[in-house]
Amino acid sequence: MLSSLLSLSFVAAVLAATAPVALAALGGALCGRAGVFNIALEGQMLWAAFTAVGVSHWTASPWWGVLAAVVTTALLSGILAVGSVRWHADPIIVAVGLNLLALGLTGFLLRSVFDASGTFAPPGLVGLPDLSQLSDVPVLGRLLAGQSVLVPLALLLPVAAAWWLARTAVGLRLRGVGDHPAAATTLGVPVSRYQQLTVLVAGALCGLAGAQLALGNVTAFTENMTAGRGWVAVAAVMLAVNRPVGVLLACLLFGAAEAWGFRLQGIGLPQQLTDAAPYLVTLVVLVLARARRARRSPLPAGGTP
Length: 305
Prior knowledge:
The chain has helices at residues 2-5, 8-33, 41-59, 62-86, 91-114, 140-144, 150-167, 169-179, 181-186, 191-217, 229-239, 244-266, 271-275, 277-296, and strands at 119-120, 221-222. By secondary structure, it is an all-alpha fold. The radius of gyration is 20 Å and the shape is globular. It is found in: Cell membrane.
């Protein structure tokens, strides 16, 4: 078992499991930096997965599916942007409504448009092409040759986002919007516009996440196929305190737990038990991280932070 965990094929499985969660979590982290707590990642990923498969089926091109997922999910996230930022509604309530809307809408459209129930995997549905041109590259080929281009993109984007937030004027303004919105306003920064655009960008990232899940990890759409990955992304955002690179590391931990769960199925453990492994690991890490922060920053005597 230990040798299988240290193999390159296991690492490749970790990367595949990490990619969709990392893309969605990056969107959540950017929203957190802008001062918007986005827990609509689950619904946005699910909608993106449905759109990617549907458009890919109609056009016979996975790239049109990816584009449709990005655009329509960004538009869907406009509900959160307008509701929570412009109309000052509670972002938690708006996001919960968005998650429920995506769950119900994808199930309804699956039956009414595609006359399918449960899983939609029509003959001829084309998934994202892999990076087989890297197959001759030592080590890297073993890790990425079977992956779509969205997998390395999911690993690079958090690093690029961290650099952008720390080194560019727009990134620093975005951090200022989230940390001190009143001060940002006095300096002439359009706080509302920054927050709304960030929520839309997060929707586009969830579009990539859903496309990778439905056209990269598998080539099909299944009802509620996100299966809590959006919530794990929210947990990663909280664990990393909105830091993009920390979010990526947290998602790699989730990906390792998911890949490990598949390995455990190979030795005969029940699928229901192994499927719970990533969520159990996420819960344990969240509790440990919270306990560590509590020790570092104990509450004052009155109990108010």
